[in-house]
Amino acid sequence: MKNAVGREIPEEILKLTGKEPFQGNNYKQGVPFRRMGPIIRPNMDNQHSKLVGSIREALEKCHAHNGMTVSFHHHFREGDLIVNMVMKEIHDMGLKNITVAATSLGKAHDPLVPMIEDGTITRIEASGVRGKIGEAISAGKLKGLAIMRSHGGRVRSLVTGETKVDIAFIGAPTSDDYGNLRGIGGKTNCGVLSYSHVDGDCAEYVVAITDCLVPFPNFPAHISMTKVDYVCVVDAIGIPEKIATGAAKPTTDQRKLMMAEYCTQVVVNTPYFKDGFSYQTGVGGASIASTISLTKIMQERGIKMGFGVGGLTKPMCDLLDMGLVRVLMDTQAFDLDAVSNVINPAHHRITAGAYANPFNKGAFVNRLDYVILASLEVDVHFNCNVVVGSDGVITGAQGGHPDTAQGAKCTIVICPLLQGRIPAICTDVTTVTTPGESVDIVVTDYGVAVNPNRPDLLEALKKADCVPLKTIEELRDIAYSIVGEPEPVEFEDRIVGIIEARDGTIMDVVRQVKPIPEH
Amino acid sequence: MNPNLKRLRRSMMFLNCQKPGLIKDPYVYAPDSILLDLEDAVAEREKDAARYSLYHALQEIDYRGVERVVRINGLDSDLWEEDIRCAVAGGCDAIRIPKTETAEDVRRVEAAVEAAEKDYGRELGSTLIMAALESAKGVMNAYSICTSSERMFGIALSGGDYTKDLQTTISGTGVELMGARQNMIIAARAAGVQCFDTVYTNLNDMEGFRRDVQTIKTMGFDGKSIINPRQIPIVHEIFTPTQKEIVFAEKVVHEIDTKKAQGIGVFTVDGKMIDIAFYDGAKRTLALAKASGVYKGDI
Predict the structure, then answer these.
(1) Residue range B65-84: average pLDDT?
(2) Test mutation, A251, A252, A256, chain B, max B CBs within 10 A
(3) Which of B219, B239, B259 is the last residue of a domain?
(4) What is the Cα–Cα distance from B186 to B189, expressed in whole angstroms?
(5) Which of A138, B145, B197, B239 could disulfide-link B10, Cβ–Cβ 3.0 to 4.6 Å?
(6) Residues B232 and B138 occupy one common structural domain
């Protein structure tokens, strides 16, 4: 059955998952559902201790079993030690058929591959996967399905009970012995614990893992003792230098600077750029450069931002320090400046649910004026692909891409026309992860294309005569004229993963890649 | 006369032919010319591969109006003649001769270019020549080099080798380059060709680069060799006439034309004394403004 972005979703997958094909962004607007509540085991005995001596003991006390689902957050990014530590213990216990429901998995988790191969892990649910796990899934090594969903989509899947987490492991930079957790302090300061709130709310068991036990009460707690069953102290939960590094140096790549300048011109010449506007951007070189050049124009014109949201970086925190943004809403700290900036009273931590859950009564993304995003591929329907490489191998994560793209009034995607020899602007993306209806403007090094369903934005940019305007088809044609039109990637029939839309419907499927014959 | 002799050449960007990623689409940065390098940037054992990339790039890539100049290997090597054949066969716009010391050097290249044009069926005289002066001798012979060929569009200073020959080093102040710069711009102007300044290699000092460009612009240079696309916007900004300069030049041309008809030779514009001597300069400003895309008037 074809879905609303023209992708064929096989019946067998619809049957297997019980899902519907994607039917457009607002398909579930106002459709009621019952929120899932977890089983709670009360603690009223004042002699009861939550401290456990080891991960193994925690697993045993939480009745770890074959076929269970365990969850993790990715606030420690490529410095994370928790996932591997817990999964090794599960593997050593001989448990099988485990579902890993992480907010994201990266190269740090390459050691999970043998556990995929031996059947310890048979399902993965994550925003996306990088590194060897992605290669293993694409090679068909994961027995069950990989489900890739956005940050907002993950919260939805937990609160609706679609994903039922048996044990949530929350790495906490600091914890007291009763499970009050904070994202700051300790050796592995990550600033916030936004992605784990929903796990605290929905998992049957919640285990805090820390390497910095502090006196009770660890307050104000980011995740409260009221949600935590056990606390386990280990030597190290992360590698600090891989969690948050110093702020990325502003890019010196002229191509990125050009795209950043186009992006800034698009922002300042569209109607939402006025006092009190809201804005989110990413960590790419062009995004950061764009924020820096936007700052100058805001100062010149005396325009201040109402709020900035999302994963935060130094340039966004600088805006706060300069008084150019009223408040920052933080879901993730990308550099040390962002981590240390959380002490600013106008720098607020928010949960992933408040940030992006489409099944809330309202999320921050819905109030965005601008979001600046990147993409591996964009097609002539403005569909974006941020998960599957042009070689068909899973290599990225949705993150908040589909959430913010749908939510923002003006969604700008920065994408160089060519990624090496691959045309990034193409007729059809390898895999749709964000639907074209969410994407308003595509900025490339060869010019800027406006989605035809936004004539208002096109008109504003034409009037301002500030960027080289092209149609998306023109950009595609230039790309193909330079590197040619690539042959479609060859896949096997087997479906190894699904790209879930924010509302839980199926945006696309990911198939096993055909091995490249050896010569 | 080849109409491209006098084209706008504010920025001439070096690109290593050994690196296809660099030569595939440099036009996105909008330099006036690219210098496709077969010489110093290319490793000795990669010369063949670089020529191969160059030929196919020239044949296949639409450089969208950016001038394609090929820097060949020195005349003291056994590489330069084949470089010229590849470049001309590919259809380059011009050849840059490194380490030029005499008018005879230019004439040798000219003969090879002409032979290649015949061999590969290219229009005779379509390939222009520029000469890089990299030694005291070359600088001393600047005028005869400038006037050595109909194909010659300009000379460029190559500061690294030149300062070595002078037994000094690049100081960042420009003092060591002063004599060469002065001599070359005078020679070029006397011969009616263009003059280009040497590269600025410190990419971490954009302010120093800006001062350097300002200096050579004031001296009369037509443009500068550059090594990174980041330098392009700065060169273009400095070489592009300001709105104030454009408006003034427009007035000067208009007033001179009007007053001439009235039999008046000298008069004032915006409080400045103006006579016919200002006419060519004002015309040049407007032509540069037009070429830079900031003047849409009809003078």
Answers:
(1) 97
(2) A252
(3) B239
(4) 5
(5) B239
(6) yes
Owning domain of residue B199: 3-239
User: Domain check: are B137 and B75 in the same one?
Assistant: yes
CB A90 within 8 A of CB A70: yes
What is the overall mean pLDDT for chain A?
A: 95
3-class SS letters over B200-264: CCCCCCHHHHHHHHHHHHHHCCCEEEECCCCHHHHHHHHHCCCHHHHHHHHHHHHHHHHHHHCCC
Interface contact flag, B25 A418, Cβ < 8 Å:
yes
> Quick one: pLDDT at residue A44?
96
For the segment A28-43, what is each residue's pLDDT rounded down to a tens digit? 999 999 998 899 999 9
Q: What are the pLDDT digits (tens) for B8-31?
A: 999 999 999 999 889 999 999 999
Residue where one domain finishes, among candidates B196, B224, B239: B239
For chains A and B, CB pairs below 8 A equal: 22
Judge whether B296 lies within some domain. Answer: no
Same domain, B84 and B175: yes
Q: Is A144 exposed, middle or buried (0-12, 13-18, 19+ CB in 10 A)?
A: middle
Q: How many angstroms separate the CA atoms of B62 and A143, rounded?
A: 49
Query: So what's the architecture of A50-243 in CATH?
Result: 3-Layer(aba) Sandwich (3.40)
CATH of the domain at B166: 3.20.20.60
- Answer whether B205 touches A (CB < 8 Å): no
Question: Is residue B25 domain-shared with residue B71, that is, in the same domain?
Answer: yes
pLDDT exceeding 70 applies to what percent of chain A? 99
Question: A257: which chain B residues are within 8 Å (Cβ-Cβ)?
Answer: 230
Which of A61-75, A499-513, B260-274 is least confident?
B260-274
Domain boundaries for CATH 3.40.1080.10 within chain A? 50-243, 254-489
What is the per-residue pLDDT for A241? 85
Q: Which residues pair with A277 in a beta bridge?
A: A305
In the structure, what pLDDT confidence band is assigned to residue B264 with cuts at 50, 70 and 90? confident
Q: Once rounded to an integer, what is the mean pLDDT over residues B182-202? A: 97
Mean pLDDT of A349-375: 97
Q: Hey, is the C-beta of B232 within 8 angstroms of any chain A C-beta?
A: yes
The CATH class given to the A254-489 domain equals alpha beta
Give which of B25, B209, B228 to mutate to test A binding, by max A Cβ within 10 Å: B25
Checking ipTM against 0.85, whether it exceeds it is no
> Mean pLDDT throughout A421-439?
96
Asked whether residue B75 falls in the same domain as residue B214, the answer is: yes
8 Å CB contact of B232 and A254:
yes
Q: How far apart are CA B79 and CA A274, in angstroms?
A: 61
B27 at A interface, C-beta within 8 A? no
Tell me if B272 is assigned to some domain. yes
pLDDT at B280: 86
The fraction of chain A above a pLDDT of 90, given in percent, is 89
